[in-house]
Amino acid sequence: MRKKAIIILAALATIVVVLNLRSVPAEKSVKSEELVMEKENPGSETAILAGGCFWGMEEMIRKIPGVIKTEVGYTGGDLENPTYEDMKAEKTGHAESIEIQFNPARLSYGALLDLFFKIHDPTTPNRQGNDIGAQYRSAIFYAGPKQQKEANAAVQRARTSGLWKKPVITEILPAKKFWPAEEYHQDYLKKHPGGYTCHYLRGTVKSAEWKKGDPVKKLTPLQYEVIQKCGTEPAFNNEYWNNKKEGIYTDVISGEPLFSSIDKFDSGTGWPSFTKPIKVDVLVERPDKSLSMARVEVRGKKSDSHLGHVFEDGPKPDGLRYCINSAALRFIPKEDLQKEGYGEYLALFSK
């Protein structure tokens, strides 16, 4: 009997231990994950930026090569444990912000700031797009003298870049405690594709015609759907699928030359198809597993616009087919290259 009692007590003790382990608060497991993240990314650095609604900021920044982790939240004010409802009341002093963990070996703090100034408007006080209020102000919260120095330099670069007609008014402030926002705000546009955002990447525009005003505002609804939301235009019912004129195809946002008519061929797919780009460094390729398919997405390097995809079923010798949306392109005929500012590419057609 005594032996049976000992066995029963031991079994009960085991059950109690298991139940206690299962009842460990989720907060502890989250902290454990964060510790693992830190161990897996030694030498990483942290930046805190504010540039309007944090949904759009996070969606663009998390895709930058070298960014390890992003988290949206509130900082810059004095209220502890602020909520989104507090922010709407504009009594916190905080700004909607994003905390960014990045690998400085792949992405420098200065380069991150340069991109920051291209994805939001740093000239509008307490406003970004349709969002109005102090919580939507432009600010850099630096950690230490080195980041402060680089932040000042980045603001100066933005002021002399020619990208902004009005004065850049981004605040440069020492970092305060960062309060993470509610869970439903984290990765919001990843959870809700096509949701609200007023952020997009500003690029340089080469043609004089396209330098007048904001190029994104000139987009048609179809162009916006393709370029900004990774959409696809109809096959055989788009501007350039059957275009046989000589000339070059440029990025509709940045004006960067992408493809030449010399490398265009009829793939039978109903979209403009090319065997190669004008230069290898004008495109960025990314894995794309959407629509339950494994594909390679093609984006403009300067504009970060979605262009199309590249496939390995093209003609020899390289066997590549760059399948590109007409909506992402602007065609410039050979006879107009000089007056449009692309005279250097006339040499392609004299070979």
Description:
The chain has eight helices and 17 strands. It starts with a helix and ends in an 18-residue tail after the last strand. Strand 4 and strand 5 (131-132) form a beta hairpin. The strands form four sheets. The protein has a six-stranded mixed β-sheet, covered by helices on one side. The protein has a six-stranded antiparallel β-sheet with strand order 11-12-16-15-14-13. 25% of the residues lie in helices and 23% in strands. The protein is of the alpha+beta class and 351 residues long. The model is unreliable at 1-39 and 204-213 (pLDDT under 50).
The structural class is alpha+beta
CATH class category label of the largest domain: Alpha Beta
User: How many domains, as an integer?
Assistant: 2
Looking at the structure, the CATH topology of the largest domain is: Peptide Methionine Sulfoxide Reductase, Chain A
Number of helices: 8
Task: Please estimate the helix content.
Answer: 25-40%
Main pleated sheet: 6 strands, mixed
E-strand count = 17
> How much β-strand is present in the residues?
15-25%
- Separation of termini? 100 Å
Shape: elongated
Give the ordered list of helices and strands.
HHEHEHEHEEEHEEHHEEEEEEEEE
